[in-house]
Amino acid sequence: xxxxxxxxxxxxxxxxxxxxxxxxxxxxxxxxxxxxxxxxxxxxxxxxxxxxxxxxxxxxxxxxxxxxxxxxxxxxxxxxxxxxxxxxxxxxxxxxxxxxxxxxxxxxxxxxxxxxxxxxxxxxxxxxxxxxxxxxxxxxxxxxxxxxxxxxxxxxxxx
Length: 159
Prior knowledge:
This protein has helices at about 20-25, 30, 55-75, 80-85, 90-110, 130-140, 140-145, and strands spanning about 5-10, 15-20. The chain has a single domain (about 5-155), classed as Orthogonal Bundle (Hypothetical protein af1432), CATH 1.10.3210. α3 packs antiparallel against α5 (about 90-110). By secondary structure, the protein is mostly helical.
């Protein structure tokens, strides 16, 4: 019987739980490459304990974003005024949908970072940065293989 919930051991959050769709994206090459990219660029050369990578950072961001979403959208924490502003999020199915969207966005938010993080972005061609690389990765055929819907570039614009 296939598992629907997967757990990844985390030194900060103990376990980060993922559903099968999130697990497929986590197993993708664009996400797995984050295992080799330092979160703090070359900071580990000065501070030997500063060794965490963008991979575990992305898992932690997904976990924390979920927790914040759950607290902020919990019905006991939402006033009628806010409920009217939230509209569809106050409906249970829509809330679950937006929670999944948030989790996937949090998981993939750093996928475009280069080795040594921000310190190498100046080597990119004009008009390129890690945000643009992230959009390219997310909308790629590579991610479509892992169950991510193929998005048109206009759907991934920055606000």
